[in-house]
Structures are given as structure tokens and as C-alpha cells.
Hints:
This protein is α+β, with helices and mostly antiparallel strands.
Amino acid sequence: MIEYLEMDNMLENFEIKNYKCFKDFKVDKLSKINIISGDNNVGKTALLESILLIKNSSNIRDFIQAIVFIFENRDLTSEDINEYLLKINLAFKYNGSNLTIQYKFIDDLNDNEFEKMQRYTIDDFIVMYNNDIELQIVPFNGIKGFKIIHDKSNLSFIDSSKPNNTELTKLYSKI
Length: 175
């Protein structure tokens, strides 16, 4: 289950590296209400998705669930998710932490990572680092099909490609 953004745990600033159109992007001085505008296909949705990932990256499982949520709401397939995760080299910097998530082939693992993972017959791994210290490493053999049940009772995120007046009313009433 994806946890939606909570208003009381607000991001004030963050950096994104290597996520969709953002190679090296920094946001400073966010307030409780921020307006994001721009032409089509400039990264507005990618920015909101990256915030969702930042807020749901306490471990690799939550991160992958957030990726699945994003891809599912964009009507993409598990093959699209697998292709994305095989190329992942994503970094977020917020609240004094530098979180990095990478796909690594077995030959790319450092000695410590290799020692932990040599018992697996899988050659692909996703590694999460916090301030360059390995936080978690898991074998990755792809995502086969997925289904996540969305709990819209705590709605703080609206898919901008499919707005719904009821969802907008709920969000505005929270604000």
C-alpha cells in the first residue's frame, strides 16, 4: 500500500539526480502551498512523482511499491517498470540525508555487497545507500505483474492526467 504525502511532514527543500527529465535538480524554500505550472511535457508530473518517491523510500520494498504505483497510474506495464529499474541510478538529498538507489549487476557489487549476496543465484540487485553507507541490498529478478489497491481516503496526490472533481474537492478541503 502506498502512503500518500502527509501535510504535517513537509519537505522544505530537496535535490533530485537522474530521475526522468531531472539530471541534477534542486528545490529550495518550499512552503505549505506551492504552485507548479508549465507547458506540457516539461516535468511537472515527474516532479510530483519524485516527491512521492522521496517520501516513500525508507526501504527498497516501499520504493518499488511507489514505482509500481506511478507506473500503474500512468498505464504502463511491468515490462516498463523492469526496464526502468534496470537503469536506475537515482539520488535524493533531503533532511540531511543523501539517499541513492542503484541497479547493480553482480560484477558491479563491492566486496561487502558481494559477500552478502553470493548465496543468491540471481545476478541482478538493487542497492540503497544512505550517505554512501549501504542501507539495503536485495536480489532483483524483475516484477512479473502487479496489482496495488489504492486507498483514496487519505488523498494528497492526484494523477494530473486523470483529474476527478471529487478527488480535487477532497484535496482542496484538506488544504
